[in-house]
């Protein structure tokens, strides 16, 4: 398939040669690169993308899930333009009514967010949530799960994609750094936990209860490996018991498991929630919200508002939880976000059904060719897992699956006009039609015939 791929994407290859002269790897985020070169896109509309060689694709990357209403949705576009037209400017640097309007709607869908703040990305949202948790508990270590991603900063770049051999025992995974240049202290300050293993988590957290202020979790790992309900409930109980703030990082799952995110689906209430991606429908946004007492009155703030910056009310700088951001609550982005929510309140149900149809179609095709595997996921995200012995319940199980064949299948799909970055998860949008889904299943059938014969 690689020869066909190179043949089809010659202009992408040429573009990337030029891009390498400007940016390391020719990309603005490592994840956007893959060998031999990524596809370079130039146009998108609905569920379709067109690359610089004029190849057309049905897009399932959907910009890592953020484009929940697809590319270039007219209603989102109009909302942004209208807002600019109405306001005259596109940024005030003062409070703006959309911050409150959007916030009220978010609170309706995520009742656990009694108060919230906006950021410009998921990364900033999770970062702020860690400070809130530390301020509330006075405890500065954090715990996260092996294989879970919360943003690209030192504190959380621990055991995201670790070499399992170096990480040691599955029940007591070692914290491993993910990047060159990270401060070595984070290997000690961020504790790695095994996902879907309640007993092991209980032991580790109990042992470190006096230092650990927060546990952050992707309720559905990487958007497609669900936490088991008993695990989720158990984790909620143990963190509450040990005085640890439980943070649901719903940057991927927000709106994608239903409008109330994973917390609504599980019926489990976190102390803090972080949102991003789909909330802006492709515009950069992040949200942190949660319990009033954590958002407003942390232990460290000695009764004054955590966020209060009025100097009269505080005795020293350390009574205030610092949060800033020139672009936080940007009116253009919130206007887009409001339109996205309008669309989803009407159309998300259909997108959820189409995702089920696509997963079922892929699963039937896998069975047809006698391939052990499954389309795994809930909501509008899933991934295709091959050669899994039993269920994939965590990062280590995933490493045992047939990743090489998965990659080959992805390149063959690319050659047939189905776009995901090889090895990525699939995200379905409200713009995907029944026809798109059927075409994708047919492409899957063709590809599995090529790979497995029959
Ligand atoms: N948390 C999760 C669960 C994510 O999936 C991501 C992005 N992949 C982030 C945080 C970081 O978000 P952003 O890329 O907007 O900074």
TrEMBL record:
GO terms for molecular function: pyridoxal phosphate binding; transaminase activity. Its cofactor is pyridoxal 5'-phosphate. PROSITE patterns: AA_TRANSFER_CLASS_3. PANTHER family: GLUTAMATE-1-SEMIALDEHYDE 2,1-AMINOMUTASE, GLUTAMATE-1-SEMIALDEHYDE 2,1-AMINOMUTASE 1, CHLOROPLASTIC-RELATED. This is Glutamate-1-semialdehyde 2,1-aminomutase. Keywords: Pyridoxal phosphate. Transmembrane segments: none annotated. The keyword Protein transport does not apply. Belongs to the class-III pyridoxal-phosphate-dependent aminotransferase family. InterPro entries: Aminotrans_3, Aminotrans_3_PPA_site, PyrdxlP-dep_Trfase, PyrdxlP-dep_Trfase_major, PyrdxlP-dep_Trfase_small.
